[in-house]
């Protein structure tokens, strides 16, 4: 029998909004022993995801964007927009300022194999699960869910 995302996902995951204070999200992650949270708008639609990786910026800081100055002209060796985004993550006070926007999601009817392939290919450890209309988060699929499923096969 072909397993689907619905067979192994965690239903009704804990979620936050972009307006959630960052300290509150960090506390949730620590207390619940989870590594990421879907971020939804007031209608419950997925707008982002916040993970431990996003929060690492708070502690690690950001290195200055490398540039050189030639004849009073600044030449950036990396994209300055990326540097600005990194600074936003370091200084962010709300989930919306730190989250990864436009996250990849799956539907509960998709095969577990397909979801695992997406996670492996994109190097992500969790996928929000949305309803058929794509307008509401109904679950969360993690690498741990997939491993536990493999153990019961």
Describe the structure.
By secondary structure, the protein is α+β, with helices and mostly antiparallel strands. The chain has one domain: Roll (CBS-domain). 40% of the residues lie in helices and 24% in strands. The chain is built from 7 helices and 9 strands; from the N terminus they run αβαββαββααββαββα. The chain has helices at residues 5-8, 22-32, 52-60, 80-91, 95-98, 112-122, 143-152; strands spanning 10-11, 36-40, 46-51, 67-70, 73-76, 100-101, 106-107, 126-130, 137-142. The strands form 3 sheets. Strands 1-9-8-7 form a 4-stranded mixed β-sheet. A hairpin with a 2-residue loop joins strand 4 and strand 5 (73-76). Helix 3 packs across helix 4. The chain is globular. The model has no long low-confidence stretch (mean pLDDT 84).
Question: Tags for this entry?
Answer:
single chain, 153 residues, alpha+beta, CBS-domain, four-stranded mixed sheet, three-stranded antiparallel sheet, 9 strands, 24% strand, globular
**Spatial gap, N to C terminus:** 10 Å
What structural class do you assign from the helix and strand content?
alpha+beta
How can the largest sheet be summarized? 4 strands, mixed
The share of residues in helices is 25-40%
CATH class: Alpha Beta
Q: Any guess at the CATH architecture?
A: Roll
CATH topology (fold) name: CBS-domain
| CATH level 4 superfamily | CBS-domain
Helix-strand pattern, N to C?
HEHEEHEEHHEEHEEH
What strand order characterises the main sheet? 1-9-8-7
Our Rg estimate from Cα atoms comes to 18 Å
Query: How many strands?
Result: 9
Question: How many structurally independent domains?
Answer: 1
Number of helices: 7
Task: Tell me the strand percentage band.
Answer: 15-25%
